[in-house]
Write a structure and sequence with these properties.
Bound molecules: thiamine diphosphate, magnesium ion
CATH class of the largest domain: Alpha Beta
Number of helices: 23
Number of strands: 18
Structural class: alpha/beta
Distance between the termini: 69 Å
Strand content: 15-25%
Helix content: 25-40%
Oligomer: single chain
CATH topology of the largest domain: Rossmann fold
Strand order of the largest sheet: 2-1-3-4-6-5
CATH superfamily of the largest domain: Thiamin diphosphate (ThDP)-binding fold, Pyr/PP domains
């Protein structure tokens, strides 16, 4: 068997069903082999390699299994880089494969050679170069283990062309990975201490991060909340891990979060962090962050504990396992914190403000209200990066894990549309919406061809404010409204572009047109682009400036700076 066949067989052994890719000289043996395996492995031809990586990311976020993408060497491989980095920042399991020049030419600046091992080193969990076809099976298996186990992340595999064409003669089979031993169970002593701290606390808050989604710990989280009556705030990456209609759900915290979430964190006496890495977008000023609280931090990656915030009780382990241990340790002790919980519940209600706001041009919140009307529990909402992303994080309610996907750590414009394609492949029975910006969508607009030709139905809803809105907002607020390089001026006409790809495009300008357009898109069999013309200079508020205190939120519902309620 040739190396190219061994590569595909190794992928099949890992139950890979889809591969998002774009061909070229250095991967032609693999593309040739696809023809032999077309019933087992579906190759989805994207129109830019970055989209292949984002699609693999979207697929992985929905399934919890590694998404796979493939590119040729040199420019094909470097086009994957943004997608790999995006996955790395959000701990997404991914296998990124790319061809390379034959081993005899490595390091010679041969045609389309790029040092992807060097380039991907800081943006992958690990990378492999396969120089000997006998190691293909072993290295691919190890790559999947590393990508998926413990804290997940992308693994890059470099495939020099001769390892694809040479015969596999004697496969190696040492699958042990030296030094790789994720810890899943929390230390029993730490669990007991945590249980004591939780039962003693008067104003506890659970801070649930993306780790809850990754470890599928939502049922355990709900159980603990029911037992103890503790309010829950989720990070942007944790959105959907706890039902947002729950009376104890505070919603998202942080810079663009809900004021009740920031209030609760600022006034808590105990924070139970489950799988969240205390990013600067949630902490703001570290000196004053959660200044009244003791902090328990549960994380599978010990390197995250104490990295940004001083911790009182660290627990290294998998969120699901640790939650189960905590539940056992606490048993059915009656829920206390009544005074705190009742107060927080009142504030939560106050925070659920009216967002079905009529008027022309359209208020962005009107679109969020429409999403809350249209989206069913299993439907998936993916976003681009910018104001629209934060509007969605703040206002759209999600109830089921893995139904809200976005690029949190990297904030990658262009993530939404291709990630939505990957999500749709992973969950064909769900409707997949991509709430996107006019700037973000334009970066990956060519993927309309992929949707058309591969029969992938997603609904991009472009919040067309004619601006790189988030940057414009910062210029308005922090640079004396000196707008520079942010006006996109409504070019192109997105509905017409959709038509050029033989897809339906609808421009929405008035309140009265929204519901019909959404319903039409919902019912359609193929991709429909909704170009929603919104107010040009609407801001996503309240917010706190970078590095400020959580309680320094301003704007919108906040009457007096520094006083949230
Ligand atoms: C690839 C990339 N380039 C630049 C940025 C910086 N940036 C963050 S938000 C933003 C504006 C996004 O504009 P748009 O997609 O129209 O969304 P809006 O904010 O208007 O909703 C920019 C330029 C980024 N996050 N990603
Ligand atoms: Mg915009």
């Amino acid at each position: 068997m040739k190396g190219s066949e061994a590569i595909i067989r190794a992928l099949l052994e890992e139950n890979v069903e889809y591969i998002f890719g774009f061909p070229g000289g250095a991967v032609m043996p693999i593309y040739d082999e696809f023809l032999e395996f077309k019933d087992d492995l579906r190759h989805i031809l994207v129109r830019h390699e970055q989209a292949a990586a984002h699609a693999a990311d979207g697929y992985a976020k929905v399934t919890g299994r590694a998404g796979v993408c493939l590119a040729t060497s040199g420019p094909g491989a470097t086009n994957l880089v943004t997608g790999i980095m995006t996955a790395y920042m959000d701990s997404v399991p991914m296998i990124a494969l790319a061809g390379n020049v034959p081993t005899s030419l490595l390091g010679n600046d041969a045609f389309q050679e790029s040092d992807m091992m060097g380039i991907t080193m800081p943006i992958t969990k690990h990378n492999f170069q396969i120089r000997d076809p006998n190691t293909i099976h072993t290295k691919i298996k190890k790559a999947f283990t590393i990508a998926q186990e413990g804290r997940p992340g992308p693994v890059y595999i470099d495939l020099p062309k001769d390892c694809q064409t040479k015969e596999v003669t004697k496969e190696t089979n040492n699958f042990k990975i030296a030094g790789f031993k994720p810890v899943f169970e929390g230390h029993p002593k730490q669990i007991m201490k945590a249980a004591e701290m939780i039962l003693k606390a008067e104003r506890p808050v659970i801070l649930a991060g993306g780790g809850i989604l990754i470890s599928n710990a939502s049922p355990e989280l709900s159980k603990l909340v029911e037992m103890l009556n503790i309010p829950v705030t989720t990070t942007f990456m944790g959105k959907s891990c706890f039902p947002e209609s729950h009376p104890l759900c505070l919603g998202m915290l942080g810079m663009h979060g809900r004021k009740v979430a920031n209030y609760a964190i600022g006034n808590a006496d105990l924070i139970i962090n489950l799988g969240c890495r205390f990013s600067d977008r949630i902490t703001g000023d570290l000196e004053t962050f959660a200044s009244q609280a003791k902090i328990i931090h549960v994380d599978i990656d010990s390197a995250e504990i104490g990295k940004n915030v001083k911790i009182d009780l660290p627990i290294v382990g998998d969120a699901k396992k640790v939650l189960a241990q905590l539940i056992k340790a606490i048993e059915a002790k009656a829920g206390k914190h009544k005074e705190w919980t009742e107060k927080i519940k009142r504030f939560i209600k106050e925070c659920d403000c009216e967002i079905d706001i009529s008027g022309s041009p359209l208020d962005p919140r009107k679109i969020m209200s429409e999403f809350n009307r249209v989206l069913k529990k299993d439907d998936i909402l993916v976003t681009g990066t910018g104001q629209h992303q934060m509007f969605a994080g703040h206002f759209v309610k999600r109830e089921k894990p893995r139904t809200f996907l976005s690029s949190g750590g990297a904030g990658t414009m262009g993530y939404g549309f291709p990630a939505a394609m990957g999500a749709k492949i992973a969950a064909p029975d769900s409707q997949v919406f991509d709430i996107d910006g006019d700037g973000s969508f334009a970066m990956v607009i060519q993927e309309l061809a992929t949707c058309k030709e591969e029969n992938i139905k997603v609904v991009p809803v472009i919040m067309n404010n004619a601006y790189l809105g988030m940057v414009r907002q910062w210029m308005e607020l922090f640079f004396d409204k000196r707008y520079s390089g942010v006006h996109l001026k409504r070019t192109p006409d997105f509905a017409k572009v959709a038509e050029a790809y033989s897809l339906e495009g609808v421009t929405v300008e008035r309140d009265s047109e929204i519901a019909e357009a959404f319903d039409r898109a919902y019912k359609a069999d193929s991709t429909v682009v909704l170009d929603v013309i919104t107010q040009e200079e609407a801001n996503i508020l309240p917010m706190f400036p970078a590095g400020a205190r959580n309680t320094d939120m301003f704007g919108n519902c906040i009457q007096k700076r520094g006083k949230l309620f």
